[in-house]
């Protein structure tokens, strides 16, 4: 299996990878019981952060209007003048994985952005190590880069939150700039932490939508991918709080985004009685959930999925009442553009909060048309329309 690869001035040896049906997880992670899941929601709930992200949903982001990947919300900027230097820089990227469609879409976009920055002489090469959803592997990957000693900048997309914190701190101790994006860690040592508004905002958007469409006492089945990842845990912590307050009966399950498991869960719940809503902490597997209702011959639920094309197309086809929350996939461009700013000595946000706006029923047709010809695993708000390979690279789904 492929573990280490380098993307240099020209990307060669591209490997065609079949788009995975769902998100793979660390096989060492055991899905907790329902009681354990409830305890985790309490553990991960942070009222201050909840309130912060709730307020950020209504903030108009600053930055280029047509480049949301460079926009920011309520930013506090940090001085990077100590890193100012000329010449192309070697980037070392420790990636959690490319094991699900969201990450594959972002990885394609990132490599197209890389081409542009290489042509501009900003980045010489990007050596990437793929942890394949393993904490232990990613820790070893980060330590490998540190010991190798020829990285000008570290980019890290953590596999999980707490486990990766010490390794990120070791990268910071090298004195080189460190950029963390997507998932967070429990340290503020990185030069910048890049992410959309966050999991609490997702949970608020989705729970409020379902609550508005349902009645007190209605039942919602929550389908969760895996435990221990901050943005995923926070999505459910926010949603569970709001469901409890609204009198919505919500039961949650970890699925690993396995379509077979999702169908079984929905079928079992339908056998117990009516299911009025489906809530997901990621849209991967949403179509399987909808198909379970079709198989049972019952009415479609009110449902939240994600901006993955498979869900948007099924939403349009069925006419169900839905919402597509977004964890902005265009964020995969931002770390490389941050490198350009950092080595130019420009200020960057310490916490670089990107806009995160759900796709509503009124917008579905717009995004279906804009992404016509894209595969089901593509994400509508990928933000790569101005990059060199558009649209062919994303249509072909060749993973660098």
Written overview of the protein:
By secondary structure, the chain is of the alpha/beta class. The chain starts with a strand and ends with a strand. Helices cover 38% and strands 16% of the residues. It has a 7-stranded mixed beta sheet with strand order 1-5-4-6-7-8-15, sandwiched between helices. It has a 5-stranded parallel beta sheet with strand order 10-9-11-12-13, sandwiched between helices. Strands 2-16 form a two-stranded antiparallel ribbon.
Which helices and strands occur, and which strands form pairs?
Elements lengths: L3 E4 L7 E2 L17 H11 L2 H10 L20 E2 L10 E7 L5 H19 L3 E8 L4 H14 L4 E5 L7 H8 L5 E4 L10 E5 L2 H15 L5 E6 L5 H17 L2 E6 L4 H14 L4 E4 L5 H11 L5 E3 L4 H10 L3 E2 L10 H10 L4 E2 L1 E4 L9 H7 L21 H5 L1 E2 L1
Short description:
This protein has 400 residues and is of the alpha/beta class. The chain is 38% helix and 16% strand.
Keywords:
400 residues; alpha/beta; seven-stranded mixed sheet; five-stranded parallel sheet; 16 strands; globular
Q: Helix amount, in percent? A: 25-40%
Average pLDDT for all residues = 90
What strand line-up does the widest sheet have? Answer: 1-5-4-6-7-8-15
Q: Give the SSE order as H and E letters.
A: EEHHEEHEHEHEEHEHEHEHEHEHEEHHE
Over all CA atoms, what is the radius of gyration? 21 Å
- Tell me the number of strands: 16
Cα-to-Cα separation, first versus last residue: 14 Å
SS summary, helix count: 13
């Amino acid at each position: 299996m492929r573990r280490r690869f380098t993307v240099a001035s020209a990307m060669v040896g591209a490997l065609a990878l079949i788009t995975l049906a769902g998100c793979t997880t660390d096989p060492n992670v055991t899905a907790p019981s329902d009681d354990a899941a409830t305890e985790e929601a309490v553990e991960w709930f942070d009222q201050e952060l909840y309130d912060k992200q709730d307020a950020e949903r209504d903030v108009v982001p600053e930055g280029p209007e047509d480049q949301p990947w460079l926009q920011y919300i309520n930013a506090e900027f940090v001085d990077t003048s100590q890193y100012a230097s000329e010449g192309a820089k070697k980037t070392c990227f420790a990636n959690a994985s490319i094991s699900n469609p969201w990450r594959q879409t972002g990885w394609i976009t990132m490599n197209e952005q890389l081409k542009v920055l290489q042509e501009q002489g900003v980045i010489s090469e990007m050596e990437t190590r793929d942890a394949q959803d393993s904490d232990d592997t990613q820790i070893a990957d980060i330590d490998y880069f540190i010991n190798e000693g020829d990285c000008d900048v570290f980019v890290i997309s953590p596999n999980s939150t707490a486990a990766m914190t010490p390794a990120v701190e070791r990268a910071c101790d090298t004195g080189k700039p460190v950029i963390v994006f997507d998932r967070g860690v429990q340290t503020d040592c990185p030069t910048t932490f890049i992410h959309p508004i966050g999991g609490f905002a997702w949970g608020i958007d989705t729970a409020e939508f379902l609550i508005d469409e349902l009645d007190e006492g209605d039942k919602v089945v929550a389908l969760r991918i895996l435990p221990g990842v901050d943005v995923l845990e926070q999505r459910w912590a926010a949603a569970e709080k709001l469901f409890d307050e609204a009198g919505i009966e919500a039961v949650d399950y970890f699925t690993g985004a396995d379509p077979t498991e999702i169908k079984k869960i929905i079928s079992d719940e339908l056998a117990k009685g009516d299911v009025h809503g489906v809530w997901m902490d990621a849209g991967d597997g949403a179509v399987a959930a909808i198909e379970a209702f079709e198989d049972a011959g019952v009415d479609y639920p009110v449902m939240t999925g994600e901006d993955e094309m498979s869900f948007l197309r099924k939403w349009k086809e069925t006419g169900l009442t839905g919402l597509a929350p977004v964890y902005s996939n265009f964020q995969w461009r931002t770390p490389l553009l941050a490198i350009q700013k950092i080595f130019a000595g420009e200020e960057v946000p310490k916490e670089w909060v990107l806009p995160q706006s759900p796709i509503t029923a009124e917008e579905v047709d717009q995004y279906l048309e804009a992404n016509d010809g894209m595969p089901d695993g593509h994400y509508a708000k990928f933000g790569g329309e101005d990059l060199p390979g558009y649209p062919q690279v994303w249509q072909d789904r060749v993973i660098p």
